[in-house]
Inverse folding.
């Protein structure tokens, strides 16, 4: 009970946290780190971009993590797309039959352009008698 003219004290409520914004931030960072693992970070980056955009459109109180998530996710998607285009261009270049007419020259191109690839995997392919 309060006296007339006085108000009761209520402590301030903690700031609202947006789970969409935090999830976007975490997935954006995971997307950037995941690019090291053979472009595996593209999927979390795509999800992080969607969640961050939804959090920004909703106008949640916690905007900074959503902005960080959108920026990290977009950066991961751009870097992943550039890496994928570069890899596919090199692979198409090595598969060109006019430039490399026989199988051994194409194999040499792959081993030269992709030194991280295992050149011995061709002997494990199934052959029909």
């Amino acid at each position: 009970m309060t006296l007339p003219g006085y108000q009761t004290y209520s402590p301030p409520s903690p700031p609202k946290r947006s789970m969409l914004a935090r999830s976007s931030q975490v997935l954006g960072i995971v997307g950037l780190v995941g690019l090291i693992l053979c472009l595996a970070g593209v999927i979390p980056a795509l999800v992080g971009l969607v969640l961050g955009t939804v959090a920004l459109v909703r106008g949640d109180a916690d905007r900074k993590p959503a902005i960080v998530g959108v920026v990290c996710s977009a950066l991961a998607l751009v870097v992943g797309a550039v890496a994928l285009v570069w890899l596919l261009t090199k692979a198409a270049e090595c598969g060109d039959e006019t430039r490399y007419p026989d199988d051994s020259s194409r194999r040499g191109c792959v081993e030269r352009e992709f030194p991280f690839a295992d050149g011995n995997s061709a002997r494990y392919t199934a052959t029909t008698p």
Observations:
- The first helix runs from residue 19 to 34.
- The mean pLDDT is 84.
- The chain has four helices and no strands.
